[in-house]
Amino acid sequence: MRGGIYGLFRDRRVDNYLAENMALLREGVSSEDEDRILNTDEHEYVSEVVKRFSIEGVQLEFDRMSTTVETRHVRAEDFPPNFFVEPGERYPKDTFVFHIPFTGNGSVLSCRPNTFSSFTPNAVVSDKEITFEVVDFGYTEEQLKQIVEETTDAIRRQHANLSQDISRYNEGLENPVRAILRRRKEEAGRRNELLAALGIAKRGDDASSSQEETLTPSGEEAGPEAAQSKVSIAPDGRPLEEWAGASRATLAVVFTDVVGSTKLRREVGDEAMDRMVAEHFEAGRRHVAEYGGQVIKTIGDSLLVVLRTACDALDFALAFREATGDDRINIRVGIHVGPVQIKGGDVSGSIVDYAERVTGAVEGPEVCLSERARSDIDLERANRHAHLQWVQHSEENLKGFESGQVLWSIDE
Q1: Contacts with 412 (C-beta within 8 Å, 6 or more apart), sequence order
Q2: Which residues contact 52 (CB under 8 A, 6 or more apart)?
Q3: Residue 203: is its pLDDT beyond 70?
Q4: What is the domain extent for residue 373?
């Protein structure tokens, strides 16, 4: 995990996290080059895929736990009953912040294990550490020690339960990988035998892919120029996988789309529109670089972008919406966060599909976030976002996903 902030053991069920990983595994094997599938050694291939998609565990280093003292403005409602405070007010109080370092895949710490105790520590996961806070309401040394011990004991128990879930998943990977591989081999072999019997040559991938229909996130045809832009834009500097830190990483995925692009093209003409879109993309790349992200590719007049955190993605979206490269261009933006598969400078997986659907749910020039992205922003509590007013959309139907999805937009 790099840069994000997550609720400890409470953002989502571990089964959902593991199901997303399994979906990426299936997609990876299903999209593997057919020649390799037919000619690979089964044992070696299965071992390679299991190694690549096994979930890395987390080691908590309680012996290196440290404390800082900071001032927090605490809500009156959070004070014990014996304090005289005015409802709705906030009061400055010294707060002990406890830091527990860890190593390994920190993104799993956001997951709720299958065996879950009733006491859930109010803690967050940031870059390579867990933090929890204890407001100093005049506790004695023994009282403070008891609170800390209860919290760390609960973290230990939940971590042990989560580690058990992950170990069980990793140990069970080999059989489904072997089954997927054998099914692909059978399908490819049967298809090749059928074509050989008919005496028909198999058409190359390049020829067939050039005929694919290219759509923007809003579902409009992107036109013939989009076939060229589907090729991934080389990320600035390092390769994308190196920038992300792994071939599978948790990132903020952002789709942008020009609002009313077809109407605008009719009004200004193709040549002028092409210039406007080129300037628009250039502006987008500048904004992405400013917030430390990467442009993955263009699709028609849309951009697919990844950034490290939901806060970075929101900053990018707000900046890009205000300065699109041409005053006549307005954009809609969709943001989602989760684990994606990285290969050849591109990203894939259900998280990318969901982000695209979030963008498609927006009609006007708005910024729309998934529930996960909004939750990450709340957890980070960045001062620059404190003024934003949010509107919840609780019954959104996104194609290919369960009905009643929760999305969030900014109240303008």
Answers
A1: 366
A2: 28, 247, 248
A3: no
A4: 214-410
Report, as an integer, the average pLDDT of 222-239. 45
Q: Kindly state whether residues 227 and 143 are assigned to the same domain.
A: no
Which of 151, 171, 191 marks a domain boundary? 171
Please state, in angstroms and as integers, the Cα–Cα distance from residue 322 to each residue in 189, 311, 361, 411, following that order: 53, 17, 20, 15
Please check the confidence at residue 214 and state whether its pLDDT lies above 70: no
What's the token pair of residue 362? 């927006």
* CATH assignment at residue 232: 3.30.70.1230
Average pLDDT, the chain: 84
Residue 217 pLDDT more than 60?
no
- 111 and 252, same domain (yes or no): no
Query: Contact 298/233 with Cβ under 8 angstroms?
Result: yes
Q: What's the pLDDT score for residue 98?
A: 95
The reply to whether 15 and 78 lie within a common domain is: yes
Q: What is the pLDDT of residue 201?
A: 62
State how far the Cα of 174 lies from the Cα of 46, in Å rounded to an integer: 7
pLDDT in tens, 41-62: 999 999 999 998 899 899 999 9
